[in-house]
Amino acid sequence: MLKVVPDPPHTHQSLEDTLIQATDYALCASTVVRQAMLLHPKSSASILMMASMHELETLRVLLEQALIQVQMPSEPRTLH
């Protein structure tokens, strides 16, 4: 019997790839909020947009810190 809905593709990304992708999404979301602020600076929702922008910037910084930790070598190198 044929399946009506196919299985989703199996994409096994590394933690580093996932963090990079999440950072890109946070940057895109931050850009959307900034654009909304430029289009409607006097909107009643501008306070919420500013709060969202702050949260997204904080998320981006945390993701970048996590990415740095992932990219650090796990074993200490000896200096000669």
Question: How would you explain this protein's 3D organization?
Answer:
It comes from Pseudomonas oryzicola. This is DUF3077 domain-containing protein. By secondary structure, the protein is mainly α. The protein has one domain (15-70). It is 64% helix and 0% strand. It contains 2 helices and no strands. The chain has helices at residues 15-39, 46-71. The longest helix has 26 residues, at 46-71.
Question: For the report, how would you describe the main beta sheet?
Answer: none
Number of helices: 2
Broad shape: flat
Number of domains: 1
Share of residues in helices = 55-70%
Order of helices and strands: HH
* Count of extended strands: 0
| Cα-atom radius of gyration | 20 Å
Mean pLDDT: 87
First CA to last CA: what distance? 65 Å
Low-confidence residue ranges: none
Structural class: mainly alpha
- What fraction of the residues are assigned to beta strands by DSSP? under 5%
Write the layout of secondary structure elements.
Elements: H1 15-39, H2 46-71
Helix pairs in contact: 1-2
Provide a compact summary of the structure.
The protein is mainly α. It has 2 helices and no strands. The protein has one domain.
Short descriptors:
80 residues, mainly alpha, DUF3077 domain-containing protein
